[in-house]
């Protein structure tokens, strides 16, 4: 529960599964008005009914493919007509593919950047003017520990998340002192449908074992920090410590962690 969210409007992308769905449930539980965006229109409508009935909150749902800029731009007037203010944007939509540079196609790479980076930027630009005008708001960008440590077979995915981190850091400095907060979330691997796309063989998940992070724990931490001036949320702590060491001693960490890095 986060009492700061009562009566506030929260936009969540990628809302129909995994982390996005868990964030939506906890925001509704806290009394927030929800604006849910995802590709699966049928599941969106089901979530809209279930969350509205269960928590007696307002829920709007918009189906869109965030890989297509024209569909993103078509959302804006619809959201503006139905939403007086936006208090929090959670840029959660994203996907990854675990393929080597040799094997990944440019179409796959472009789609990953379209969803993970460009859609995030477009939605941020959409909500930012109103947040600056009202001198309050919170933009939360879901990045990844992969944005801090790139590993084999994740070059493009890591590049998208590194881009998200750089964009988030720059935006945070741009809006400093305006009342708008900007947070990057860097989770490790979570037990979600992400890996059904990223690694259909299931090998990587099987090798991760105890490093898998419960998605409920990540969602709870994110919602608990909403509307607070939080720079980053990093889960799990040991993986974030490894990222910090890698920034200082990259060759050493890559040598010591070689076995873990090649688990995909």
UniProtKB/TrEMBL annotation:
Organism, scientific name: Caldibacillus debilis GB1
Taxonomic classification: Bacteria, Bacillati, Bacillota, Bacilli, Bacillales
Keywords for this protein: Oxidoreductase
Assigned protein family: Belongs to the short-chain dehydrogenases/reductases (SDR) family.
InterPro entries on file: NAD(P)-bd_dom_sf, Sc_DH/Rdtase_CS, SDR_fam
GO CC list: membrane
UniProt protein name: Short-chain dehydrogenase of various substrate specificitie
Keyword Oxidoreductase: yes
GO molecular function: oxidoreductase activity
């Amino acid at each position: 529960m986060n009492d700061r969210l009562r009566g506030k409007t929260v936009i969540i992308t990628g809302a129909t599964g995994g982390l996005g769905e868990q964030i939506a449930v906890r925001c509704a539980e806290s009394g927030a008005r929800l604006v849910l965006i995802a590709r699966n229109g049928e599941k969106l409508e089901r979530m809209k009914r279930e969350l509205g009935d269960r928590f007696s909150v307002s829920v709007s749902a918009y189906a869109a493919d965030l890989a297509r800029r024209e569909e993103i731009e078509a959302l804006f007037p619809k959201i503006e007509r139905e939403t007086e203010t936006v208090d929090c944007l959670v840029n959660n939509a994203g996907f990854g593919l675990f393929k080597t540079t040799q094997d990944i196609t440019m179409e796959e790479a472009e789609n990953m950047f379209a969803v993970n980076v460009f859609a995030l930027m477009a939605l941020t630009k959409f909500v930012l003017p109103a947040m600056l005008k009202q001198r309050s708001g919170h933009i939360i960008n879901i990045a990844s520990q992969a944005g801090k440590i790139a590993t084999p077979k994740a070059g493009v995915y890591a590049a998208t998340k590194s881009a998200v981190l750089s964009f988030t850091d720059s935006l945070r400095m741009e809006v400093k002192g305006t009342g708008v907060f900007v947070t990057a979330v860097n989770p490790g691997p979570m037990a979600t449908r992400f890996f059904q796309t990223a690694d259909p063989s299931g090998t990587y998940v099987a090798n991760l074992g105890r490093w898998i992070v419960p998605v409920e724990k990540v969602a709870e931490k994110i919602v608990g920090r909403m509307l607070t001036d939080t720079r980053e949320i990093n889960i799990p702590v040991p993986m974030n410590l490894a990222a910090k060491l890698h920034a200082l001693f990259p060759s050493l960490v890559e040598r010591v962690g070689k076995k873990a890095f090649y688990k995909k």
